[in-house]
Amino acid sequence: MTGTGSELTEGEHERFCNLIYRVAGIRIPGTKRVMVATRVRKRLKATGISSFSAYLNFLNSAAGAGEMPMFLDVMTTNETYFYRDPHHYDWFDQTFLPEVIQRARLRKRPRSLRVWSAASSTGEELYSIALKVVGHRPELNGWKLTLLGTDLSGAVLEAARAGVYDDRALHLVGDEERRAYFTHDPVARTWTLSREVQAAATFKTHNLLEPLNEEPFDCIFIKNVLIYFDAESKKTVVQHLLAALAKGGYLVVGPSEGIYTMLGALTKHKSWLYQKPA
Q: pLDDT, tens digit, for every residue of 112-131?
C-alpha cells in the first residue's frame, strides 16, 4: 500500500529509520512509527509534498540536500534543562575550575580554558557551564575562554542563541542566580539570559559522527544523547571525543550513554567522570 500524508507504511518507516541512521547514527525503534509519521507530516506540510514516499525520494535526491537538516530537526528529540545532573556542575564549579585556576597560577598550564558541550540542544547545558565560569570571573580575568556548544539540529541552536527559557527549564536555578543573570517576563512566563552569559558561549552545527576539527578541550560534556546510537556509532563518537580531549582533560558523561566499556584509554574518577592521561 502506498503511503500518503495520513498513513505511513511499515516499509516507509523502515526507510526513514535507515536514512536517519545513515546520516546521524541514531537508531529509531520499529515501535516508533506513529512518532515518525507525526513528525514527518510537519515537513510534508512545509514542503507541499503529498506523500511519505515522495518525500523519501526527495530526501534521497540531490535536490533534497537542503531539506535534510530540516528533516533531522523534526526527527531529533531535544529535552533538557539547566543543571540537569546537579552534581556534574558542582564538580565543575567547586573542583575543576579551582584546580585549573591554581595550576595556571603555578604556571603549570596556560591562562586559557576550553569546554565543549556536545549535543548541546537548546543551550541549557552550555549555559549552565557558562554560569559557573562567570561566577569565577575575577579569577579568570584576562583568560582566553572558549565555551562551545554543538548540535546536529540548527533549529535548537537558534533557540540556544536566543537565550529565552520557560519556568520548567529553570526549575533547578536558585533565586540568586535568577536575579543576577536572568530577566523575567511574568506575562510571557519566560526568562531571558543576560548578555554577559550569552556572550560567553558559542554555538555551531556539528554531527557527532564527524571529527570536530577544533583545538583540544580541557573538559567535554556529553550527556543524554548516545542512548539513541548503536554500538558502532558510539565507537565512532567516542573516537572523536577522545581526539578532541586535551591531555589531562576531563570527560563528563550522562547516566545512560552506554559508552563506559569504550573509555578504557581514560582514567575513571566516578561513574560519570573520566580523565585523559597527561
A: 999 999 989 999 999 999 99
Q: In the chain, what are the domains?
A: 10-74 (1.10.155.10), 86-275 (3.40.50.150)
pTM summary value: 0.83
The string of pLDDT tens digits covering residues 201-255 is: 999 999 999 999 999 999 999 998 887 788 899 999 999 999 999 999 999 998 8
Half-sphere exposure of 111 (CA within 13 A, CB side): 9
For 106-140, give one letter per residue: b (16+ CB within 10 A) or e. Answer: eeebeeebbbbbbbbbbbbbbbbbbbbbbebeeeb
Which cell is 58 given? 526527495
**Rounded to whole angstroms, how far apart are CA atoms 62 and 74?**
20
Mean pLDDT value of segment 23-33: 84
In sequence order, what are the residues at sequence separation of 6 or more whose Cβ sits closer than 8 angstroms to the Cβ of residue 131? 82, 177, 181, 197
CA 122 to chain centre: 8
Residues 198 and 163 sit within 8 Å (Cβ to Cβ): yes
For residue 243, give the 3-state DSSP assignment. Answer: helix
SS3 for 148? strand
